Every structure is written in structure tokens, then in C-alpha cells.
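Lab meeting tomorrow. Please check the following:
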Amino acid sequence: MTIELRYDQARAVYHDPKDGIVATVAVATLFSPTSSPVEVPIVTKPTATGTIHSGSTTLHLRLQVGEGASFVVGERIKLTSDGVTYQPTIARIDGDILIARAALPQIPNTGTTVYKTRLTATLSAPGVAQLGTDYRLEWVYNDAISSGYHTEGVSIVRWPWVSPVSADDVRVHLAEIYSDTSRTDVFCETIAARASDKIAQALLASRRRAHLFPDPSRLEDSTWQAVRLLLAEQGYTPDGDAAQFAREMRFSLGDALAEVVKSLTGYDANNDGNIDGDENNGGFWSFRVRR
């Protein structure tokens, strides 16, 4: 998902390598749409480790006393046991017990080293002159043996798109509708973030950008439709045909977006920070739903 950086605020950013590299050298660079460097922030590399203690399971990774404090929920870790490398994501932390998002195939051996892999940096407030889209943040890193690379889009905006549906809202929905309180914070955060991204991408497809709407609450119903669709893909459906229910949710999402977009007002089309002229009139919007 594109990073949205408010023009007058710094923002912390991070990258969880999927390639298993525990970087000892790392550089992050923010590039302009014309590939000119805008900023090269200082990157904090992963240094802390933990050691698997006896009593671990495939899901609950027990570390030595005091080591759990070095890790954070949501980050990807790395460990190698019996010659096999795993990179689970931490779903919860209970003292010195790291609870993985999904169980490992086997219990890691006692004494196995657990590595942090997350790279972090802070982007400075860029200023109003840098407002725009199609910036990119590049991460280049290595561990003296292997090299890694990652890039993600960045938009510098006045009004960052804030999803009207939060992870906690998803958790309450699961509890109230499906009587399920077992899902982790990471699961709920992922569903909420993906739903938010679906709305932003749908708006982009209609030649609008979510961050130019100063009031995201106007899209709350559409975002909930996206949440229900994503949950249906995870098996959360009423009694009946799951595939048919997911298909209905896709159409419902399109219908909801089409309806709300027709009536949307307050869109800063020229990105000047003012809502004026036709920007106060939602009548010029159109949105096509294909079946």
C-alpha cells in the first residue's frame, strides 16, 4: 500500500524483509517522481536477538527471561531449526512468549536464535512545495552475503486517508456477528488495512484519490462492504454457498461505491487546499460497476 506522508509532519516507516536477510548495512532513499533523491533518512538496523527456551510450542515461542521486550507485535522474525529457516510474524506477545500468527511445522529446538529483521527510519516533514504523488521509497540492504531490495509508493498529501473502519471495529464485528473472539490484532489490522486499500484503489480507478477527500467518513459504508468481502474470503459467511456470498459482496461493494461517489462533495480536485467551485458539487462524478 502507498505510504501517505502529511506535508507538515514527519512519519516513521519500516520494512520487514521477506527474503530472510538480517541486514547489517541498509540505506533508505525517498525519490521524487523524476527519480531525484529527496531524502536519505537514517536507517535503524535490527540488532536484538532472542533464544528459544524450553517449553515452546509450534505457536508459542518462549524466549529467555527478559528477551521478549526486544520484539514488537506485527514484525517478522527469523529462526533456523534443524536446517530449516522460518519467518513467522508476531501476532501477540505475552511477557517472554512470542505468539506467531500461524503455527510452525515443528517446535524449534531449545537454544535456537531468534532474530529481529525489521528496518526502520523516519521521513522528515517535506513541506507544502513537495505535495504530490508517485514518489517512491527504496530500501537497499545486505548482510555481507546476500543483498535485498524493496520499494513502495509514497504520496505527500494534506489529508492522509484514514480508514473509517479500524481494526477494533473488525474485532467487534467478528464477535457480534460470528461470535468469534479468537482472531489476533494482526489479523484484524490486516483486514482493516486491506479494506481501506480496496476503497483507495477503487477511487483511483475512477480517477480520484482518497487523500483529496477531507472527510473519509463519507465512505464508511463502502469500507464495511470491503471488510465483509475480505472476511467472506476468509470463510466468514452466513449459512449457504460461500463462493456465492463472496460474489454478492463484490457486487455490493461496487454498488455502494457507485452510490456514494455520485453524491460526494468536498473533493479537492486541484490539490490547492481549498474546496471551491465544482469541488463542492458531486454531480460531475461517475462510477461504473461491471458484472
